[in-house]
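Need residues for this backbone.
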């Protein structure tokens, strides 16, 4: 089987249904099948994962970051600013949309969870 490189885009907030859990389950499955996760980009309401309202979801993402040393968890800089996130939680970085564009060019697949 060919190893594919994935970028994941998360657009919904952690309190808006099952978006985050579905994306985490998808990531675990792709890693279990030998694929590579390059980046997870949290855009718009997805950046609210960095707020303290949903600590279980944040912890689940930090677990993904810890187990996937080559992948990045990126909070969109404009979205982070909108929600008052000045310092990203452990395992996350803040970057602009250019990081998403770069990841899209470097990835075999870009999956969006909304």
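Answer:
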């Amino acid at each position: 089987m060919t190893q594919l490189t994935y970028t994941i885009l998360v657009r919904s907030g952690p309190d808006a249904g099952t978006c985050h859990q579905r994306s985490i389950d998808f990531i675990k499955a792709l890693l279990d099948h030998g694929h590579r996760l390059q980046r997870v980009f949290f855009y718009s309401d997805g950046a609210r994962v960095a707020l303290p309202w949903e600590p279980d979801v944040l912890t689940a993402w930090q677990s993904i970051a810890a187990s996937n040393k080559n992948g990045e968890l990126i909070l969109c800089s404009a979205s982070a600013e909108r929600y008052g996130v000045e310092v990203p939680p452990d395992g996350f970085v803040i970057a602009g949309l250019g990081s998403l564009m770069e990841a899209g060019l470097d990835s075999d697949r870009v999956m969006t969870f909304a």
